[in-house]
Specification:
By secondary structure, this protein is of the alpha+beta class. It has a three-stranded antiparallel sheet, with helices on one face. The longest helix is centred in the middle third of the chain and has 13 residues.
Length: 71
């Protein structure tokens, strides 16, 4: 098993069929960081959740990725 595969397995162990490990919120192009940035800050300040990961695509828009503690 490669180092990347081992790390992915450690972070996201296989789950039962139909379950999920992450949630994704996407704002399609033209992406508005003001709106998505408010969500990013709000989940931390108002809900006391860890900061979601931010993915940026020059063609598709912006995404927030939320890791779930349990599938």
């Amino acid at each position: 098993m490669s180092r990347l595969a081992a790390e992915l397995h450690r972070l996201y162990p296989p789950a039962a069929a139909g379950s999920t490990h992450v949630l994704r919120l996407e704002v399609a192009a033209p992406a508005d960081w003001a709106a998505l940035g408010g969500v990013w800050r709000g989940v931390q300040a108002d809900l006391s959740l860890p900061a979601p990961a931010i993915a940026v695509s020059g063609t598709d828009g912006l995404q927030l990725w939320f890791s779930l503690q349990q599938p």
